[in-house]
């Protein structure tokens, strides 16, 4: 960040953005971003009932089960995080 | 020589005779001049400053010499009054120290002592404390001893006084009663009458001081340093006595009567400056006059606190300070404040000019023959001020001229010394705290403790005086290293600074901030310092500045969370029954903050114990006051604990001490006020004592009880309320006639509260309350004092709400509006105004209506000084209330208005014009259009008015008339009126401008066709100037008027004017012009404006091009979705602008694109928008804040118009770019995209390939039915 940036609205904007889970930053890894994407996706499926119904029909499961599955998948959507190489 | 004696005797005799002749018995011309009054009523001496300050002490606050009547201490009243003084220095306040701003009472904080650290019992575990450290027990014991000492002193003094008074009485009874000595009772009476301003003849300072064996304010603060001498017995002193002549030192203590006041004839305030201690008389206790302000906080006379020998943070130079600087030495020394310098310098000068003539000089002046040196009278006592002696007469017979100063290398010449390693400059008063920093010793040679101390001082100095950057880093360092530096060293440096008498608001704020920060870090380590911190923070709780109070509360609340309840109680318990009322007051407030921080239940057992303390009434008083403060502080949150709080204090109602009874009633009032409208059941137990109490008490206790009742009654059910109201009403009606101002206010308030409750019947009010109420309160005297006035009006309005308009208005109108006292008439008018605004005028019968109008006209015409517009508002309210019924009176009213429009006084003319604008609507209702037309013509004739305020009002009146009768019927006709307004538009006065532009705008809107186009063009030119007006309302009205005019005469001409205006230099003007262009485009459709505007972009001039872009930006903002028809037309222009080298071009174009995108979202212009986005996107790496803001906003606009997926695709290329700078920008865009449209992104995220054991793919999206 530049010196001029420090006191203007832009710095506040970034601060504001950082308060939301799911926003990213320059050092975000592929894994972390993917996790966010997955969770957002599952949240969206659960949030839109027609989507949920569609998946339920496709998988031949009850809607409730489907919702439960999605929620469970949100825990570790991409598996365990990979070892950091640069540590 | 011998023959001179009889001659002198004869002269003296003659003079005496002449004086006798001039006396009152004979007729002299004086009598004609003074109207034959008793000359005793004239002042024989005039106080040097003001007539008012006869009793002021050196600090400018009132030294109470009379029995305190039932009002707040004068010092507080003065404080309050001062808070309302408007600053007429244009908002730039001179720097002022807190101590200067505050009154005497608040400055008593400086008298408090930072007590030594106390041991923290929690930290020790089970160990017995070391005898050398101070424990809670020690402290309690000391307080007890101190209290006992005060008590004994008081007793001794009392006895002495009694003996003395007995002696005096014996003597007085012999003396003829003719001597008109006034005692304090006279004072009180005079005050009560509310008239006494000027002191009577015998009321010179000396007399009062002599005859009032006053209980001064000194008594209230017996714990103070200055009060080591028993105070009650001391005669009321005034500042004249305070010159510490050696003779007086013994006098004042042993035989108070022996003082000869006035012994220092030239003594004005500088006598009171600290100087006396130049002659240290070891036996004598130092009075507070002797102290230099700088040492007040820390130096306590030995006797007061036994171990004051160790007061941490005592200024290192005690000895230097004590020897008060004599005026002749003016070298820069740490302890002197700048004020002291000036004083000393000035004093030296005066002393030298006014030194008495010596015998030799007199001999040289007078002839040797014919004069004789007389012996001084026996009563003459020469001035023996030591300091004055010290000045002496340096070299007789020389006037102080220029003297070449001695050169002295070490001298500092008032120039602050340069500080090592970039420390901020030091003010003279800082030297005593930070002097150590000036020693250029080697840091390594110091012990670790000293180094630490040095470090703290450096950081503190940076915080206190440094630049913002320095301050910030220093603050951070202090915070981070708080535990390392240690609580002791930190607080020992910070707290004395806060006690500095020359502290300023900003400095205090910063230091308090430091404390706040380190409190967090130190946590339980603060325990030994809790009391010290409280001593400096408590005064903030009664500061006049709201933010200081909030800050104080926050610190105390944090402190109590860090230290814990037990420590807080242990620290504050001894102060609860401190002898000084100030200490108790602040402690009570601090306790209420602790209660709100740690919860009331935690504090309840302690409060209960304190409120039932048997040892001292002070403790009970403070305990109950804590409850009051809790109620005030936390408001309705007391409800859950209401019952227990009431139970804790209820016994105070029957306490033996009057003050305790009073505060109990006040606390109950506060509790009831806080819990309203709930919680009446909690007050059940106090109802009986309260209602019984009002029958047995008198004076201020009664007032407090009534106040409590006033707040409790509104909580009751209707039936009870009516019963209890009837009970209390007897007393209230009796107290209607109380002469006490405070009682009057409380009675009025209680009546208001009682009357407004549901259960009280109008009939009861009418029959039982009203007659007495009007007889005692609706008198002229009530109108003279502002607070009485307000309260009376409020109460009367409340009664009117209950009993209706007719009763009240009947009573007060009858005589009131024609009363000879103007304030009274004003009070009547204000009441009528409020009553009729609330309730309408339908209850008013024709007879009353006649009276009312007649009275109003009289009052309106007779008013002389009305800055508040009461009469005007009242008139307006009544006329509007009566509506059509006012028709018969309109000719009369208009006659008055016309007459007054012609008045010599500007104020009267202004009011008349204002009145027209208020009653115009009613005149229309009454069908008096002809009359209005006539008024219009009259007003038109007065447009030459030279006073801008009046002219503004006249324009306002014209506007009101035009508004109601319309353009066509207006006389004078619009075509005559408008040309007359054009030159007025040039007027720079805001009121004129605003009213004029409103009127012109109105005409442009509704009646543009009555005026030729050329006239409108002329107005357009004038309007351009008005775009610069400071007031936003004027600028907005101007811009709107442009729109109306453009609509009326077509946009071409107006637009040409506006586009030309883009070339001017002034930015403000250009900005307003661009707005005006956009407005014209909006009102006349964009296609009439766009071609000319876009053509103007071809002018190769920065300002013009930017102006055009800005107009486009506003234009697209205003026209919204109409923009879809024009987007393709302006795209080439925007392309060009977005590729321009000039940053501002790109910025303005970006904001135009933003508005455009937002306007056309969902209207099928995506192709053009994507095209523009391609021009916007390369700008994302701009660093200039405005440009990058505009670009980001444009992208946001695109997100709305094009959908998040499109923008995400633009983003993806850079999210994992190898260059960090690029990634940062892209992630910023991604984040705002994400926050704006998270859900939409789900469908658009890229497909990620799985890696070894991580699943990144989203198989669900591939499902297909």
User: Which percent range fits the helix content of chain A?
Assistant: 55-70%
Sequence stretches where pLDDT stays below 50 over 5 or more residues of chain A: 1-7
Number of strands of chain B: 0
Radius of gyration of chain A: 18 Å
- End-to-end separation of chain B: 142 Å
Mean pLDDT of chain A: 83
The number of helical runs of chain A is 4
Gyration radius over CA of chain B: 40 Å
What share of residues of chain B is helical? 55-70%
- In one word, what is the shape of chain A? flat
Give the ordered list of helices and strands of chain A. HHHH
InterPro entries (chain B): ARM-like, ARM-type_fold, PP2A/SF3B1-like_HEAT, SF3b_su1, SF3b_su1-like, TOG
Region (Disordered) (chain B): 29-57, 164-306
Family (chain B): Belongs to the SF3B1 family.
GO molecular function (chain B): mRNA binding
What does this molecule look like?
The complex is a heterodimer of chains A (87) and B (1265). Chain A is built from four helices and no strands. Chain A has 87 residues and is mostly helical. Chain A has a domain of 49 residues. Chain A is flat, with a radius of gyration of 18 Å. Chain A starts with 8 loop residues before the first helix and ends in a 14-residue tail after the last helix. The N terminus of chain A is likely disordered. By secondary structure, chain B is mainly α. Among the domains of chain B are: 89 residues; 68 residues, no CATH class; 78 residues, Alpha Horseshoe (Leucine-rich Repeat Variant). In chain B, helix 36 packs antiparallel against helix 37, helix 42 crosses helix 43 and helix 56 runs antiparallel to helix 57. The relative contact order of chain B is 0.03. Chain A: Belongs to the SF3B5 family.
